[in-house]
Design brief:
It is globular and about 55 Å long. The chain has seven helices and nine strands, in the order E-E-E-E-H-H-H-E-H-H-E-E-H-E-E-H. Helix 2 crosses helix 4. The longest helix has 26 residues.
Length: 238
């Protein structure tokens, strides 16, 4: 039995609250169970130096956790003068995932930064950030379209979402919370598009190596979970 009493293929309750920030061009508060991430998408009419005069835009991301997002207060990374390796790895993952569904040429020479701030962490913060970050990005693009800056159907190629899976007490399970994540024998994150394309897979055995059969079981769970997340994204932005 899972600590949350969920079935192996059962996700936590997921919700998207759009328009949470009155200043950002796009924003979304995403909840995966008790994990809560505030995602804001900000438009800048400039691009990184290496993209100037290329005719292409850029989508990037930043990620951070508030000091009391977890059980004990964490020191702000700004106070130490640098970001940690985990933070850098996660924000690069978010950026790669969102760019996978954007036509940067059709976007034009602008940059959209998606900030993902973890308000409360209970496992799956990176997957929630990618999934909610997409909704914030969508709304930023809709803001641009309303001002005749882009045609959203040319810029946005597909949906993208992410989910965690793992092997807990010998059973493949979907959408790990912290209690499972901290005790799982195998832990993996899957990023996929709405059409089923794989953007990225991160998988780690915490103890004994996992088999190809177990990996395929995790992949099947992930496909089911991401299909549901994309349905919820579509309902949220409709």
């Amino acid at each position: 039995m899972r600590p949350s009493k969920r079935q192996p293929d059962e996700m936590r309750a997921v919700s998207f609250e759009r328009g949470i920030s009155k200043h950002a061009e796009g924003s979304c508060l995403v909840r995966f169970g008790d994990t809560q991430v505030l995602c804001t998408a900000s438009l800048e009419e400039k691009v990184p130096t290496w993209l100037r005069n290329s005719g292409k835009g850029w989508v990037t991301a930043e990620y951070g956790m508030l000091p009391r997002a977890t059980g004990e207060r964490m020191r702000r990374e700004a106070s130490s003068g640098r970001q940690g390796g985990r933070t850098l790895e996660i924000q690069r993952l978010i950026g790669r995932s969102l760019r996978a569904v954007i036509d940067l040429k059709a976007l034009g020479e602008v940059q959209i930064t998606v900030d993902c701030d973890v308000l409360q962490a209970d496992g799956g913060t990176r997957t929630a950030a990618i999934t909610g970050g997409f909704v914030a990005l969508h709304d930023c693009l809709a803001w641009m379209q309303a001002r005749h800056m882009i045609a959203i159907e040319r810029v946005l190629k597909d949906h993208v979402a992410a989910i965690s899976c793992g092997i807990y007490e010998g059973t493949p399970v979907l959408d790990l919370d912290y209690a499972e994540d901290s005790a799982a024998e195998t832990d993996a994150n899957f990023v996929m598009t709405g059409s089923g394309g794989i953007v990225e897979i991160q998988g780690t055995a915490e103890g004994a190596p996992f088999s190809e059969e177990q990996f395929n079981a995790l992949l099947a769970l992930a496909r089911r979970g991401i299909s549901r997340l994309v349905e919820l994204q579509k309902m949220a932005v409709a």
